[in-house]
Amino acid sequence: MSDSMNGQGGHHRVLILGTGPAGLTAALYAGRAGLEPLVLTGNQPGGQLTITTDVENYPGFVDGIMGPELVEHMRKQAQRFGTIVKDFEQATRVDLGQRPFVVETDGETYTCDTLIAATGASAKLLGLESETLLMGYGVSACATCDGFFFKDKEIVVVGGGDSAMEEAIYLTRFASKVTVVHRREGLRASKIMQERAQKNPKIEWQLNKVVTEILGSQKDGVHAVRLEDTTTGEVTEFSTQGVFMAIGHKPNTDLFADTLDTDDAGYLRVEHPTTRTNVEGVFACGDVMDPSYRQAITAAGTGCQAAIDAERWLEAQE
Ligand code: NAP
């Protein structure tokens, strides 16, 4: 039994940050290689799949599978091979300048020979003051978490990608009307998702519009948004009782600022086709290093690569 199982921190050959499909697949492979990986889940165990509904494009599940169920399977499978999972333990500082590497959380200090960064990405927000003020009071970035609170209400979904379509469709289960607000005429979403949303009788569209203000209060919730037409500049008030943000994600790299190289969009840079970062012994996988695909299956794939890269690196050191 490693020290950390007794809550004593301790040394690990492989330490993985993140428990989305990338982190858990890395754990599965490292576990099967006999490396007893330690996984810190962070504040959102299971990652983004826990806030999604049906996953229809993860191979192997003919009828689809619920996101939370899929990650739960992955977690159990990783644990079966000796992975130690620390729930809600969040790394607050990493020191990659010394060996072994040091990872601190609130109350624990771990050391490790290799680190796998699978910290994923978080929902982007518009950056409006009213959005921050009303978050949780009519504004949300997670339809599956909060949709239930909008039964028979009118809702706005901001964004034109697959997430926006998925959230809009999901929210029609509760809402009386869902209006998608998108800043351009053309949607970014895949054809199949666009068609599903367009066929849904409860979904309406406000194209070429941006939300410039959310109107409401913490006491009474949201009652409208201010929309600006991106072609004419005209500003209108649009009645709504809820606003769901679905404008993409930003990679979670704060922990590695000044240590790991990132690309222009802020994603961790790896030496393709490997998962090696600029620090030897540190590997990155999943959404934190993937600006273009960001799928559960691609995250799992790079998680597998990261574990194999870490295993080979450890072997080479010996
Ligand atoms: P995304 O594809 O990056 O789309 C973000 C959308 O938000 C775009 O339409 C973008 O507008 C808009 N947007 C970004 N910043 C904005 C701002 N400041 N103000 C107003 N609008 C803004 O992100 P995503 O939809 O989260 O999808 C991410 C990845 O996950 C994609 O690869 C997607 O295929 C995948 N995904 C797949 C599924 C599925 O297959 N079921 C479901 C969810 C996500 P522009 O178009 O003008 O840039």
Q: Overview of this structure, please?
A:
The protein is an alpha/beta fold and 318 residues long. The protein has helices at residues 21-32, 67-80, 129-134, 143-146, 162-171, 191-199, 296-317; strands spanning 10-17, 38-40, 54-55, 65-66, 84-86, 91-95, 101-105, 108-117, 121-123, 139-140, 154-158, 177-182, 203-207, 209-217, 221-229, 235-239, 242-245, 249-251, 282-284. Helix content is 24%, strand content 29%. The strands form five sheets. Strands 1, 2, 5, 6, 7, 8 and 19 form a seven-stranded mixed sheet that branches. Strands 10-17-11-12-13 form a five-stranded parallel sheet. A three-stranded antiparallel sheet has the order 14-15-16. The relative contact order is 0.18. The model is unreliable at 1-6 (pLDDT under 50). Bound molecules: NADP nicotinamide-adenine-dinucleotide phosphate (NAP). The site of NADP nicotinamide-adenine-dinucleotide phosphate (NAP) has 20 residues, from helix 5.
Main features:
five-stranded parallel β-sheet; binds NADP nicotinamide-adenine-dinucleotide phosphate; alpha/beta; 318 residues; 7 helices; disordered N terminus
Give helix % range: 10-25%
Give every kind of bound small molecule, once each. NADP nicotinamide-adenine-dinucleotide phosphate
Span from first to last CA? 22 Å
What is the succession of H and E elements?
EHEEEHEEEEEHEHEHEHEEEEEEEH
Helix tally equals 7
Label the structural class. Answer: alpha/beta
Largest sheet, in brief, is: 7 strands, mixed
- Indicate the proportion of strand residues: 25-35%
Question: Which term fits the overall shape?
Answer: elongated
Poorly predicted regions: 1-6
Q: How many strand segments?
A: 19
The average pLDDT is 94
Radius of gyration, CA atoms, in whole angstroms? 21 Å
